[in-house]
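Something for you to look into today, if you have time. Could you write out one complete protein record for me, on any chain you like? The space below this message is yours for that.
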Amino acid sequence: MRKHILVLFCTFYCLTAFSQSTYIKGRVFDAYSHNPLEGATVSVAGKQAAITGKDGVFSVLYSDPLAEITIEYIGYDVYSAVPKNTGLVLQIGLIASNTSLNNVEISANIKTHSSVLKNPQAIGILSRRELTRNDGVFLENSLNLVPGVRMEKRTANGGQRIVIRGYGNASNFNGSGIKAYLNGIPVTDAEGTTIFDDIDFSTLGKVEVIKGPASALYGNGIGGVVKLFTLKPSPQASKVTQEFTGGSYGLWSSNTRLESAGDKSSVLVNYGHQNYDGYRVHSSARKDFVNLLADFTSGEKSLFSIYAAYNNSYNGLAGQLDSASFFNKENKGEDRYLGNDGHSAYESYRTGLSHKYNFSNTVSNTTSTYFTNYKLNQTAAPSLSSNMVSNVGGRTEFNFNFPGQVVSITGTAGAEYQKTSAFKKTNAMSNSVLGALTTDLEVASFQYSFFTEWNVILPAGVTAIAGAGRNTVRYNITDKLTNTANPTHLDQSGSKTFKAVITPHFAIQKMFAQNITLYASLSKGYSPPATGNVVIPVTGEVVKDLKPESATQYEIGSKGSLLNKKLSYQLALFSMKIKDKLNTQAAVDEDGTVLYSYSVNAGIQQNKGIELSVNYAIIDDRFKTISLVRPFINYSYSHFRYTNFKSDNNNNEKTVDYSGNKTVGVPPHNLSAGVDIGFRNGLYLFSTFQHIDKMPISYDNMHNAPAYSLLNFKAGYKRNIGKRIQLDLFAGSNNVTGKLYYNMVFLNSYTAAAANPNIYLPGPYKATVYGGFNFSYIL
């Protein structure tokens, strides 16, 4: 009898326990590309329970309602949480931590070739860890660690330009020659001008830099492509976050954020404010911004994404320093800038809608549309400029995946359209007294691009890639100063359509042991002159006969992960020949003040270089006392020279031949290194060293900006308190040794009229400190 009772009891207990258990299903994917992550480890209560399949899906037995589910994938931050709803398919988007090239994805839509390792072109990736390894407010502190990439700025948080492989410094004020996107919305307008003033770098979660021509897929832009992505919500959580950073010279940066991510949707809303008194006279800055990011899914087939942002920024302009004032570390501004209350006031709206739809396992489409608008009011030494600009456009991509037993094919085909409408006015100004209207233009710019690229995956780990883009640019200019009141005014009205350009891309790649690739590629690009190159706003003059720049780049390289994927590297050797190179020449007065800049086709520029990036996770185990030891080193060598390169196209006694000289604005040697150290108890330490070689700043190579080295440190304590509170306390110092360095140099400004022009925009003359906290409460 007792035996029967015992059997019945055990049976009842087992049935009860089984009835309390359930299976949880989930899908693991890259939070930015939305591509599934195969091979992720899923653990329940610390014990491995499953491995995700090709579609990123897993299923695990879940019996304890308080047990944590942990998901680990090399190259990504660990996800760990107690699931709130076990009845749905959990959608878990992991955030890349950039520790292994094998798995970190770029935000492309071609499924088979979405990882950095499998893309046959040099690509720099900055994850949230790299973006916050310093103060997290100024992007150049992180972006300048990428070999072959340099970000310069004119003010505290405005006037930036990004130079990639020596290309992009043709303008002293805003970026040109590259293509930039923010959450898929072009930052670069249809004229080819890129303005970063309104972007809040402190809320970025990821940055990708494609180095060299990428016109086959992204239209014009010889230097490359910079893709910025804002933070994504933490998966399967709702929380409120408050971030604060304060530091030297009145630095104050705060973000207040609400985010929520579930199985069908994710939403993030952020309000931020920045204030900076500045380390130079008349250089204060402030910025306010609001942004919204939302994703909505309906099953695995459809994904809607929405982005909207408002930004209002102000930066004081003190002008530049001559070399004597720079080397003497003087704190002063140019009289004409100060007299005109030099400043840049920028207000913008940006919105975009994107839809991704998977028709089948073979065909998918991503289509996006956007609208941006900004107002720019800027006073400088000679003038007041008032611009109102709107951008509208869209992009559609069809992606194909045809798997086979021996040969597989993937590809993309699509189109991109962009229109920029600009109203540009310039008045002469002296001592804040408004003068005559010198420019009143209405400019309509159009860009059309059709593109396709295909990957043929062959046996023995070989992949062949071929693609091409057809790109067209057109300008329509209406000169409103052409009227009966100005009978002597030269009419600048007209239209210009640049001949359609075909830009191909070919590559071959070989993979070894799934961890190492070798590749060779050829890519072509082009950049037409912007209307700002064609017309000089300050004087109203028209620069005639400017030609588009074109470039051909050959690149060979290798990427890989060794030592059980702990050591990752990228090595690239390239040769890029740029024809009809547009370069900036400055007009200065007898006092050395740069009045304005204008462009000329100066000839040929031959860029040959080497780029190397290595990081080694000596320790990367969150259960050890010392949980992370990760040193890294990045290096670039730039052997850039002019060929058949002249000061102008006049070919007279005043024309100077600069052939054989070093390219201006490019340091031959760049080296950065550092180490990240973390402890299980939450303590961490980041250290960074950067050396910039001396840099030629005049075509004749008689003048050079000095070499400098920067040493930065950051220490912090990051911890979860209970199950609801996340805390990160930190403090750091930039330029610890107080070295003299510059943020930007105006190039090619030495003339007979100005033997010592005002060209340097210095960095802080002494070490700066900062500190702050990030506090999150999980709802």
